[in-house]
Amino acid sequence: MRYQIVIAGFGGQGVVFLVKVLALCAGNRDIPFLGTENHGMSQRGGAVSCDIKVGEFTNPVIDNGQADLIIGLDPNETLRNLHLLKKDAYVVSNSDRPFPELPFHVALSDGNAKALAGEFPIQGLNAYMLGVALASVDNFPFSVEEVETALRQINAKVADQNIAIVHQAMREN
Amino acid sequence: MKQTKKQTLMGNDAIAWGIVHANVDMISGYPGTPSSEILGMVQKIKHQLDLPIYAEWATNEKVGFEVAYAGAIAGKRTVATMKQVGLNVASDALMSASYIGNLGGMLLIAADDPGFHSSQTEQDSRVFAKFARIPVLDPATPQDAYDMTKYGVELSERFQVPVMLRPVMRVDHAREIIEMDAETHFIPNAGEFQRDIGRWAGVPRAGRLQQGYDVLDRIETIKAYNWEHHLQPKFDALKGGKLLILAGGTGYAFTLETLADLGIEADVVKIEMPYPLPAEEIKARFDAYEKVLVVEEPYPLIEEDLAHPKLYGKKTGTMHKIDEMKKEHILMALQKLGVYEGTNIYEVPKFDLGFDVPDRPPALCPGCPHRDIYYAIMKVFKKKKSIYPSDIGCYTLALSQGAIDSILCMGASVSMASGFSIADPSKTVVATIGDGTFFHSGIPPLLNAVYQNHRFILIILDNSTIAMTGRQGTPERFHQNIDIAKIVEGMGIKCYEHTYSHEMQENIDFMKTIKSEFEKPDHQGPLVVRVRQFCILDNERKDDWIPNLFAEVDPDKCVACDSCTTVYKCPPMAYNAEGKIEIDPFLCAGCGGCLDVVCPTDAFQLDAIKSKGGAS
Prior knowledge:
heterodimer; A: alpha/beta; six-stranded mixed beta sheet
């Protein structure tokens, strides 16, 4: 398997958390993978995009036109990174507005509105969008059970809440 | 053969495990992206497994290097860790350490940042290794970083000289499955200083000259070792043909993938130790090829050492010369060399979204007190009549408020304030520096300013943490007797004190008193202010400071004047579809800083429900 995922958002949204979750999913199945993250200055509220490449790769950076999927926690950050996607890739994004016509499979969900309505805390936006990806992406490389295991490994304290949010997203999308 | 296990790790965590598995007794250094997580992870492992390791931050990289180096002289195994520009600070010690050498293994980790992700320069630490004449290892992946950390410590002990590990950001902050020692059986090394004055205290000229000869001999020995153990086995396994690629570090990782993507076959040699290179032996192998391409970053180090008519790289304009490695750069090099005739598969048509996606540069966090202090400074010390030198840290982001005029390197705000005050006495120089940076290298220039009577204002933004790099502690946080005010007073001048207030007017009033103090006819020399504040990401302290006063906008009062989006610049504030400012409820930290003064028409008002803990 070779599958390349871009995770986009801005500093503070928990983009790196999703990289860690997907990395654990791959690691637990002993599939090789490479991920890359933003730390330091690039994390301070600015645009953040992290890559994870599952399968036989030797470098962690996703080049233009190569990604199978983008999970975006912010509509502008999703749109900023479309050049990384290959033809017929999947776009899963938090968005309060429709996207222009794009040559991709697009799944949008207004996570901010749901958080504002008290359906989940905004800190769970990353877990929610992961659930949207599980629900909408036909070739998503990991099962919901694998995601649950990774969420428990990464932070047992908030795992139940995150898992509930993932399932909520899968029901709603 | 040791048992191994597989674990999913980030590069810096892998390096930390490598340090522990190499039985390193002491690690010191200074935080700096992308190196910062290494020492913190060693601290975690040390506490988890209760290991007798010294793992502590130093006040700056030079101090950290010297602590670790003395440990290695005394027979311990040691590591010094820093980012590439930190090595500039430690370089004085490094240059001499290369002459003197060590007994226990010492690994110097200098993390490079090609692409300027979090650094003010793109300098290549491998060049520093060559300058100091010490061997350098260049990992391509987190697995390499783990293996080379252990190997580098051994190598240092074998050749009795510090060895550099040079991971780049795409290794430090990459994540993969690492195969590492299954068990940790830490064996501490005895530390016993052996007096050897001729070696440890060698002086010019005779002592150091002899050590200089030793350095040259040693580097020749390591060159031969590099050929025998690293390079010759690789070259012997090659077929020869049209193209040979010599690839260092991440260059190797990017090269393999590019060749696979393009379906091109070429011989590739991974250069694990780019200095010292056995150039003659390598060049003798060029006979089997038409062309040789070097893929390395960021500087042409290997390329310069192997100068040859068949050799291509940055200097021939074949590879990119600046910015981060990309597969596209390698593809284009292969096109230039006539090895690849297909299209640029990494080129995609530009999407026409019908609008431009607005930029989102890094910014001071919502609720960060730096924003309010800079706002107050600019309110009182007007831009036209002031110069604002600043320094390295989170507060550098006040650039977007227009509150910073110069940034050079750690500690330079103070010395540049001196320089500006001499060169342009018609303006008031108001310099800003964080407490971490003040301890790192702000003290000597302040001493100089007092000594030479330089007239400027220095504002020390004291949040008791090195915030940008992950909130490592500053000296006064863990040793309460260390007091910035006493350090300043020890120079014979007063230290003015202010405590950050969420009521903007109080910050402004304080700056006004500072202005009048500074303008008194009998005031001489620098005027120093310490502002006590906090970091909004500092979970131990922030709750004592944040008043939970959330703001909302009265749309009838907002006249879209741009004041808040240009001078105050708090990320939750943005225009909505109606052209009025709106506050993003998910981003507002409840600091209350904008509720007074900031809006000229007083449109920011208290969101009473949210401020009492209810939903907005």
